Amino acid sequence: MTPRNHQTTERRREAMAILAAAPARDLMRLWEQSGLPDDAQLLRGPETGLVTLRGRMGGGGAPFNFGEATVTRATVKLPEGEVGHAYALGRDLEKVRVAAIIDALRQRAEHAELVEERILSPLRQALAEADTRKRAETAATKVDFFTLVRGED
Amino acid sequence: MYVAVKGGEAAIRNAHRLLADRRRGDRMVPAISLEQIVGQLALAVDRVMTEGSLYDRELAALAIKQARGDMIEAIFLLRAYRTTLPRFGYSQPINTGGMLVERRVSATYKDLPGGQLLGPTFDYTHRLLDPSLATDDEPEAPESRPQEDETMLRVSEILAHEGLIEGDGAMPEDHEIGDITREPLEFPMERDTRLQALSRGDEGFLLALGYSTQRGYARNHPFAGEIRIGEVEIEIDVPELDFPVSLGRIRVTECQMVNQFKGSAKAPPQFTRGYGLVFGQSERKAMAMALCDRALRARELGEDIIAPAQDEEFVISHSDNVQATGFVEHLKLPHYVDFQAELDLVRRMRREFEKRQTGDDERKEAAE
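Structure tokens for the assembled complex are given below, as produced in the milestone run.
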């Protein structure tokens, strides 16, 4: 893979991760306000299925299956030909359909900036803020050990 | 001759209608919403997801509502639902080292990097009922303290440097990962398959078995090396994309049990390990799982198998509460014909018994 290709792939991967992680409510609100075209043909789904989740024994050892999760996926095609994919935990068909359209739109130069500015950037920021808040709330429960000195010396 | 007896359709229909009414409870009281169950009975939801072996909070909440709070019934509902969905694939193994930690404690190291983070725990509460929860009083917002994003080493990685603790757990190179949802259980099992069964196993059953090891039935000297709860990212490889796709994050609880081990013919003295990994915030279950995982490694570590918790076939065959409840509860379904046959048999045996007794008495009298 060329460095440029790699960068494009990395960006797409990050965008898809944000769309998957975003709460449906936030994603739908930003989508509706974005004014981006909703015109896309569904190639697959949206459909819900299972993904078997894997852990590693001892945390980092050999993998094992430890349960399943509901996952929804969709594939769409823009009138111009770009194909967009989306996957997300849960069963929200509409969220995933929209996420697939967004994935397709961001491949087109004339939409990429708008997608970034009106959808991905606010979502990225909201997710980061939520994580920061969670970390700070957890950090407040950190035990600060201290030593009690008893006796003269 | 076989005579089928039919009947009960109306009774069943009305029973289910009555069930729906009783489930609803007092109609003057608002019905409980799924959001309320997800948000306020979160640990019940986590248990149903874990033992139902399906991560989906809303569905678990629905199952709890439908089951009127009967956890095993809810788990059963979730398991049944699972079977209706197609399978998209297997995730990449989660990285609990990269977890967004919400709780992390170690009973073996006081000053471990990242520290002891208590998180939302019941530990150190006094277990006194709190009357304020019977009212609509809102609790205070949580305290917060600015915190850098730092990756927290697992305790096992810290201990590993000295070489006194065994590794995370390996399987042979060519080993295909077992899946009990695809293949019937076979004994002896490999550790990966066993962990899958334990992860969905009944919390009460595994808790009791874990407890039994502490009380001396296959004592294995455990320490809670680390318990961590938090969110991990799920990624999956799909054919249409040349990179692993993130599906979002799930909350899991991981328990690393560290067990003193005096060595055997197969292994030198060292710390051995048991591992627990479950959905949501399910700490007791993760600990019980880790204790059982360690006990069940007896064969691998060359220990004598002397206690129930070490008996793989016994533990794994009876750990699934959906199977267990199915077989126990089927006893209440009509067994009229079976029972008639048994009744005839017992009557005949009783007649023969009494005849023998009378015969004995007569012989005794004759002898006297």
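Chain B touches chain A through 84 residues (CB under 8 Å). Strands of chain B lie at 54-55, 87-93, 100-105, 222-236, 245-261, 270-279. Further analysis is deferred to the final report.
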